[in-house]
Design a protein that fits this description.
This protein is of the alpha+beta class and 312 residues long. It has seven helices and 21 strands. The radius of gyration is 20 Å and the shape is globular.
């Protein structure tokens, strides 16, 4: 036991914070790579999966002065190799509730978007079909106003439920300008904990057919069964990112074990042993080549968080 304590002292890195007494344990040095679709990156200095909304609110109200990062389904994020300082908050299964009242579906932010689409289909509510092709959680999809095939989260959203930077619960119906292309007007430290969406009554069989058609379209044009974050760069206004990347000759471009997909040029893939640095540097090389060839500066859609390998 004495040896274990000594080992902890010798391996300790960085300041320790006095954490509030939450219902669920706040853990130290939790690996994050397997919690993301790209499968790269280091550890969370602190990691917290709140038991419920009250547990999260209590933490926010009493948290020490430290950086805070929200991790959703991990589908649109690159964790850098030296990890994430401060606390990483992940809304798990306790935030995955879902129910229907008339044409309104209400769910927690931890629910997977595919599960929201499946629930709506079974309930005979249309408008959610595009979510069957968007990986990740509802909270993450709301944060970036995720979209596909001409639809976005804002198109079906009725109201949102959040915890603000002071730990207080806020619930409101967003104004039209609240959401924009792949972003919203929310402060960075506000956390989606739930939302309500309005559907359109329709035949479940017809909805399922639409979802099947979208799946076929997706599988024919996008890589499947690989480690990827999906679309890497935002589409510049009036342009397609993948077309610019292809024009710049980046299809199949490699860095370490990271590669630009030869099936869809706006997808970066981890072939199995890529580091976060491999992926990020590959993305930056794509941006450099597109700027040189096409005169367009691509903007990252994938979030990159944490400390890079060359940073202290």
């Amino acid at each position: 036991m004495i040896f274990d304590k000594l080992l902890k002292l010798l391996t300790y890195q960085g300041p320790r914070f006095v954490m509030p007494k939450t219902k669920n344990e706040i853990k130290r040095n939790v690996p994050l790579a397997k919690k993301t679709w790209m499968g790269v990156g280091g550890t969370a200095e602190y990691y917290f999966e709140p038991f419920d909304e009250k547990d999260l609110s209590f933490f926010i109200k009493n948290k020490p002065g430290m950086p805070m990062t929200i991790l959703g389904g991990g589908s649109n994020i690159i964790i850098r190799d030296k990890g994430v300082p401060g606390v990483v908050i992940h809304l798990g299964k306790n935030f995955a509730n879902i129910s229907r009242n008339g044409d309104i579906i209400t769910c927690g932010a931890g629910l997977l978007t595919i599960d929201l689409a499946k629930f709506a289909q079974k309930e005979g509510l249309s408008g959610f079909e595009f979510l069957s092709g968007i990986p990740g959680s509802v909270g993450g999809a709301l944060r970036m106003n995720a979209g596909a095939y001409g639809n976005e989260m804002k198109d079906i959203l009725s109201s949102v439920r959040l915890i603000d930077g002071n730990g207080s619960v806020q619930e409101f119906s967003p104004q039209p300008d609240f959401f924009q292309y792949r972003r919203n007007a929310l402060p960075d430290d506000w956390i989606f904990v739930g939302a309500s969406f309005k559907g359109i009554p329709a035949d479940p069989a017809v909805i399922q057919e639409k979802m099947n058609d979208l799946k076929k379209k997706r599988e024919s044009g996008q890589p499947a069964g690989v480690k990827t974050c999906g679309s890497t760069f935002k589409n510049p206004e009036g342009l397609k990112a993948w077309q610019l990347i292809e024009k710049a000759g980046c299809r199949g471009l490699e860095r370490g074990d990271a590669v630009v997909s030869d099936k869809h040029a706006n997808f970066l893939i981890n072939r199995g042993k890529a580091t976060a640095e491999d992926v990020e540097e590959l993305g930056e090389e794509v941006r450099r080549r597109v700027l040189k060839k096409c005169g367009v500066q691509l903007e990252w859609e994938v979030k990159r968080i944490g400390i890079k390998g060359d940073e202290e």
